[in-house]
Structure formats: C-alpha cells, structure tokens
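Morning run. Coffee first, then this:
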Amino acid sequence: MAVRHRIIGATSDSLLPERVENTVMSWDLSGLFRNHAKDIARTLRRRGLTAETAADLTQDTFVRVLACPPKETLGMHNPVAYLFRIARNLRIDHQRRERVLIRVDLSDNEFAQIADNAPNAETIVYDRQRLERTKMALAELPERTRRAFELHRLGELTIAETAATIGLSTTRTWTLLRDAYEHIDARLNGL
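And here it is:
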C-alpha cells in the first residue's frame, strides 16, 4: 500500500516520487548539487562565514550525505531540507571550533620567521640512507668488534663495563671500539 501525501499545488492522489512505503528513496545528488549548492553556500555566508569556508562546508554537506546516507526509518521526503539541516549543523560545529582557537594575525615576514623544527623531506631521506649504511657497516664488522660497539654505544656501557662483559682488557676493548668507529665513519663518508 502506497503512502499518500498532500502537496500544495498537487492533487491529493499524487504520490511523492522519492518514497513509496518501504522503497528507499534515490536522490539525484548531482542534480541536488547543481540546483542547491549555491543556495546552501549563500545561506552559510549570510550566517557569518567567509566565502571559502561556506564553499568548504557546502562540499562537506554533500560528502556527509554520500558517506552516511539517511536511514530508511527517518522517512525523509525533502532532500533539500535535509541538506540544509546538515549544512546548518556543520556551520554550528565549525563556529564552535573557531571559538576555541586562538587567532594571531601575522605579516608574511613574521610568518616566514616561525621556525619549523620538523625535518624536511630531503633530510629524512638522507638520514634514512645514513642509517641504512650504518647498519650495513655494523654487519661487516667482526662479531667481537660489533658486540663491543653495540654494548658501548647502544647499551650505554662504559669501556670498562664493556670489557668486563666481553671478557677482554680495557685497552683491547678500546681498540675494538676505535676500529668500529673508523669502519663506520669510512662507510658513511665513502672512504
């Protein structure tokens, strides 16, 4: 049995095309976007948003409908009203977030002076390559020399503690560590 609705300017026998009893409505989102995106953006601008923010929230409105379409149980018969409601909620969320943020106006020169402590992509790649070379250089070392280096450098043991752990004299352990450092340095610097 079909659900009948009275629409202004239509006969009482007309049915809404979007939904009949348990049939899921199929919205033409591209048509809705073409016909109503400017209206949604205009409404958002009238509510105090910049043109860019209004355009972003308009896009987010349609993305929200695509990502999470309305449930059948909602009985939504007016997709335009639904879109405006989503846009309204997104605007409210945006304005709440804006109230929490502290804004600072900076000139271009002041902005350029802000230090970015994050390494750039070139530095990251260079450091990864050096780390890989270091691993290869460690793998090339004799077992006892590598073990002494790892205990001293990575295990943070003193030379005396390293010597006691591997059962060598302090002088011999120091020589192994020096050899390890020289080998790694030669591999990293291409000598």
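The radius of gyration is 34 Å. Good start to the day.
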